[in-house]
Design a protein that fits this description.
Blueprint lengths: L7 E3 L2 E3 L3 E3 L15 H9 L5 E8 L16 H16 L4 E6 L16 E2 L8 E4 L2 E4 L4 E2 L2 H20 L4 E6 L4 H6 L14 H18 L5 E5 L13 H14 L4 E5 L14 H5 L6 E5 L4 H9 L5 E4 L2 H4 L3 H7 L36
Parallel strand pairs: 3-4, 3-14, 4-5, 5-10, 6-9, 10-11, 11-12, 12-13, 13-14
Antiparallel strand pairs: 1-2, 7-8
Helix pairs in contact: 1-2, 3-5, 5-6
């Protein structure tokens, strides 16, 4: 049995293996952000992963930028998530909540007319799905200096609620052009106060938000996801390697559980010059590293064997393969899923994907 499938300890948490189910937006929460019983079924089906990280989950109404995305801002949200964590734990899994603020990646049409907020009044690139279909992004309102630290503190409030809901930890979403990433990268951060300009200043919001989460729980229950080199929603930086090396060093100094690094999509237009992110940044990561992005079994094993990554994350393959770990371990074929099945409502293309069946027609044990 390869080390990839062996149990792994992350501080006081024991994972069944080193495979992480990556966070993926699936739009199955209620309109008010309360998680549903269907979500509990979905995550429990995939509990053979060593660790599950949930959909991005808004920390406040201001931070919500995706229709039918879950929240962690109210007691009702806590109650909904408690059903999810109970189901995952009953199935033998571990689960972290990914906490998130969308920043400028939102639209006033589903925010009671309120504009999105951002480090600077610069519109995101691309389009967003609204009740009226896809539309271009609006120019957001630039946050006042006095508003920034209170938003960072909200990551702490969300962490306390996540702990109350039974999660094993939280992951701050610092990737893919959302608020934390908007503060980090100079294409979206044109500020001239303590949250803009130099690399340390642009990292200040990230570090304040992480410290708030640590204060609400403990360092080893907090992770961070970053996406150096990705240009989703018009993101980019004039010196990404310098920026993210500094961010990884400072995050490691805080003693967090892990840094989750996303590779740029291979061959995609959404790719900046920075490549091989995990290998490039490994020297600057003084904690556990989760590598993510287009991995197959061979690539995942190589990252573990080479000491680049401590855990490896799979995203899209988990959608159509609830038993992905077992399929990989046994060399069984993977079911495919199309992009138009990623989002939706109800159980279709969500909880209706079957586990692998053996040649005898029996469902294989996970």
């Amino acid at each position: 049995m390869t080390e990839l499938f062996s149990p792994y300890h992350l501080a006081d948490l024991e994972f069944a293996n080193r495979i992480v189910m990556a966070p993926m937006t699936r739009t199955r929460a209620q309109d008010d952000g309360v998680p549903t019983d269907l979500m509990a079924d979905y995550f429990a089906q995939r509990a053979s992963a060593g660790l599950i990280v949930t959909d991005c989950t808004w920390i406040s109404e201001q931070g919500c930028g995706i229709i039918r995305s879950p929240g962690i801002a109210t007691d009702a949200h806590v109650g909904g998530w408690q059903r999810v964590t109970d189901a995952v734990h009953a199935a033998g899994g571990k689960i972290f909540l990914q906490i998130w603020h969308c920043g400028r990646v939102a639209h006033s049409s589903f925010r009671d007319g309120a504009l999105a907020v951002a480090p600077s009044a610069l519109a995101a690139g691309g389009q967003i799905f609204t009740p009226d279909g896809y539309v271009g992004f609006e120019t957001p309102r630039s946050l006042e200096t006095s508003e920034v630290l209170p938003i960072a503190a909200t990551f702490g409030h969300a962490t306390r609620r996540a702990r109350a809901a039974g999660f094993d930890g939280v992951e701050l979403h610092g990737a893919f052009g959302y608020l934390i990433d908007q503060f980090l990268q100079d294409v979206s951060n044109h500020r001239d106060d303590i949250f803009g300009g130099s690399v340390p200043n642009r990292c200040r919001f990230l570090l304040e938000a992480v410290q708030a989460a640590i204060d609400a729980w403990e360092p080893q229950r907090v992770g961070v996801k970053l996406s150096p080199g990705n240009t989703f929603y018009g993101m980019g930086d004039s010196d990404a390697e310098k920026l993210f090396a500094f961010a990884c060093e400072r995050l490691s100094d805080l003693g967090i559980a892990y840094i989750h690094l996303m590779e740029p999509p291979a061959g995609s237009e959404d790719t900046a010059p920075m490549q091989a992110v995990a290998r490039s940044l490994r020297p600057f990561v003084g904690t556990k590293l989760i590598a993510n992005g287009g991995l197959d079994l061979e690539g995942a094993r190589a990252l573990i064997d080479d000491g680049v990554a401590d855990l490896v994350a799979f995203g899209v393959p988990f959608i159509a393969n609830p038993d992905l770990v077992t399929r990989l371990q046994n060399g069984w074929p993977l079911a495919e899923v199309s992009h138009d099945q990623w989002y939706g409502e109800g159980p279709t293309s969500y909880t209706d994907f079957p586990a692998y069946r053996t040649s005898e027609g029996r469902e294989a044990a996970q």
